Amino acid sequence: MKTLARTLILLALIVWLGAEIFFPVVAATTFQHLIPDTHAAGSIVGSLLRILHWIGLTAGAFLLVLFAVAPALRVYQSRSVLAPMVLLVLMLGLTSYSQFGIIPTMERDRIAAGGAVDLAPEDNPARIDFNRLHRLSETVEEGILLLGLILVVFTARAETTSPAA
Question: Both ends of the chain: CA-CA distance in Å?
């Protein structure tokens, strides 16, 4: 049971962080191939970002459950899962903020700018806000990735402090 729990924890971490690491590569490739049509590229990347967020929300919730039951299964000591759980809550909070706060507001701005943000005048308030939110979205995703990498370290550390098998 311990091996199964550890395996599921590692798989959930791999899925979420793997998607977080791979997403910028996909986004850059999409824009590179669709240079003249940034609206289409943005639509594709926006759809992929929503999928990335649902992967994160699902994997994160699953990880929270696994870390919560790990001490009862004698996989980890209770105190060793506290930091990972705090990091997970922060990651879930940032993911939720992006999915349910930033993205819908960017979509509202895109529509207000006439559908294609790049075609709106640079001083258009909707375009200005869209660009601000885009930078914020990038920062939030970087934060999620950084917290995820720290989570890996704390998960490895919890492994070294787990009770003897």
Answer: 11
